[in-house]
Amino acid sequence: MTEGSSLIRGLEGVVAAETALCDLDGAHGRLAYGGYDIDELARQATFEEVAYLLWHGELPKAGQLDQFTIALIAARPIPDALAKTFALVPKKTDPMRVLQAAVAILGMDDPDATDNWRAANVRKATRLTSQMATAICAHHRIRQGQEPVPPARDLGHAANFLYMLTGQRPSSPAAKAFDASLTLYAEHELNASTFTTRVVTSTQSDMHSAVAAGVGALKGPLHGGAGEAVMHTLFEIGEVANVDRFSEQAVATKRRLMGFGHRVYKAGDPRAAILRGMAEEACRQSGQFKWYEMAVKLHERINAAKGLIPNVDFYSAPLFYSLGIPVDLFTPVIAAGRIAGWTANIIEQYEDNRLIRPRGDYVGPKRRAYVPLRSR
Ligand code: CMC
Questions:
Q1: Does residue 56 carry a catalytic annotation?
Q2: Is residue 92 part of a domain?
Q3: Whether residue 275 sits in one domain with residue 180
Q4: Cβ 308 under 6 angstroms from ligand 1
Q5: What CATH number is given to the structural domain containing 333?
Q6: DSSP assigned state of 262
Q7: Which residue segment(s) compose the domain that 299 sits in?
Q8: What's the structural domain count of the chain?
Q9: Average pLDDT score, the chain
Q10: Is the CB of 258 under 6 A from ligand 1?
Q11: pLDDT tens for each residue of 43-58
């Protein structure tokens, strides 16, 4: 390791890039994209406006939003070869593994695949945002033995996603809640998957390669995979009346509870607070209020016992479940939101690139002489 430098496990607190995308104030539990508070964006903007903001630095004017919406809609269909590939995938394959492969395959088909200039990257980001949504839903339908639902040209991005998943046009509150959750997941500074996309970009690889790597990083249960794990925890608890006993045992056995804790937020994750309200409403509407009640009680018990805060993936679990999203699609849905931030970070990394190449602190054996095979 370099003289004088010290090991920082997990790169905690290390600043690895300048960014104009996202202002994350961990001490005060605040988050803003491009200067706009996340709460205002989730309540008032559409996901399309947020993606535009992240890629261009400003919210779109009406004409710009119209043009951008047309481009997103035009990009929704996926290549036939990809749908055919989904039919070949073993039915029980984790959808995140399929999504990672799908992004790589989309790269094989993209006319700008190896062009890393800004204009090409914005075109690729537009296509990936639309195509990933279609790919997630098409794979889900195909693994269930159903025909994929072709994208609807008259629906917004979030409503079209729910439509392609179920074949039913979603209610306006469901579409709004889903749209807001995509916004809440869209960007989050140098989280593990976004950092991964920046590392790949820093080698001057290409956007599809970087995004495929980001999908792989997001899949882990310490990152985006936590949401699915939260729902499995709620299933394990089963009933509101079981939360106390479960919490006591979890604390006594020092169990790692998914959906709690955060590397940067210590006082509270602002996204969790917004998602909590959305989960309450959606669970009530769906007649499955017990998942919300269980989540609130678990939150209170664990916070009181350990001081841990619920993170973004905690209340999104009962929210997604009550919107009818299959549990193993929770992480792909997060990817469908985060694609806006991944691609914005890739574009930003190209604009001020330097190879990301940290050092390792060698702790292995001291130099020693090679021993020939016959003498070992
Ligand atoms: N359950 C139980 N204890 C926890 C948890 C948890 N979820 N999170 C942190 N702790 C404890 C941990 O045991 C440790 O205690 P001690 O100092 O006594 O050993 C202390 O808090 C510090 O934990 P850490 O693991 O060193 O903290 P970190 O900053 O490395 O980890 C984290 C952050 C998110 C990986 C961790 O909180 C965690 O594993 N949470 C559960 C998984 C999860 O919900 N992930 C989603 C994260 S937010 C969204 C995203 O990034 O996608």
A1: no
A2: yes
A3: no
A4: yes
A5: 1.10.580.10
A6: -
A7: 226-322
A8: 2
A9: 97
A10: yes
A11: 999 999 999 999 999 9
